[in-house]
Specification:
There is one protein chain. It is built from 2 helices and 8 strands. It has an 8-stranded antiparallel β-barrel. It is mainly beta and 214 residues long. Strand 3 and strand 4 form a beta hairpin.
Length: 214
């Protein structure tokens, strides 16, 4: 069980749903689908530490924000959010990754948007109302001040296009929480609070991946 799963389980088990628009303590590593699909590797930010060292500052009063090429400027927060139109047989939407400085209170250091389209339905997602195999159809950098800190560059995004992943929607995970489920290996894990309107077919979710130095 991943740390992200434990975090969501703890929140839900305690009855603290927070704001249904998202959660503040879940990570998601974007594992791909099994059965021959590529692993997708999407939103875990590549686990990159941005090449940070233990300070590397001079002994004359520290660094000036990494001017010596070794020290980091601070810690940023990586979040993800998505919207889609979902029917019984199709999923069409996008997902945005946003990395902000000062642990989420600062400027946007990196923003990436990916397109997601269904290539098939799945029936192995436990209590899910629906689940799909999705293909990444596009990946674009909207803002790049420090995308390398979360493991993304032009080459990484190019390799991301065409990869696949599994997404599902459980309306009552652990009894009451509407949740985005992501297939990691052969296990469906909760990664973010979500909402789905079967009348309009509108699906939304947002969550927190984690913090990274930059």
């Amino acid at each position: 069980m991943t740390l992200s799963t434990l975090a969501l389980l703890t929140l839900v088990a305690c009855g603290d749903k927070g704001d249904d628009s998202g959660i503040d303590n879940t990570g998601w590593d974007g594992g791909g689908t099994d059965g021959g699909s590529a692993d997708g590797g999407t939103t875990d930010g590549g686990g990159s530490d941005g090449g940070a060292t233990d300070g590397g500052g001079s002994d004359g009063g520290g660094t000036d924000g990494g001017a010596d090429g070794g020290a980091t400027d601070g810690t940023g927060l990586l979040t993800f959010a998505g919207t889609a139109t979902v029917t019984e047989t199709t999923y069409s939407g996008s997902e945005t990754l946003q990395f902000k400085g000062d642990e989420g209170d600062g400027e946007v250091l990196c923003e990436i948007t990916i397109g997601l389209e269904s290539i098939g339905t799945r029936s192995d997602c436990g209590n899910c109302d629906w689940a799909f195999d999705l293909r990444v159809t596009a990946a674009d950098i909207n803002t790049d001040v420090a995308c390398d800190a979360i493991g993304y560059d032009k080459a990484t995004l190019e390799s991301l296009v065409g990869s696949t992943r599994g997404y599902g929607y459980d309306p009552e995970y652990f009894g009451h929480a509407p949740t985005l489920m992501v297939l990691e290996g052969k296990t469906w894990n909760p990664v973010a609070y979500a909402s789905y309107d079967p009348g309009t077919h509108a699906f939304e979710y947002d969550g927190v991946d984690g913090t990274y130095p930059y």
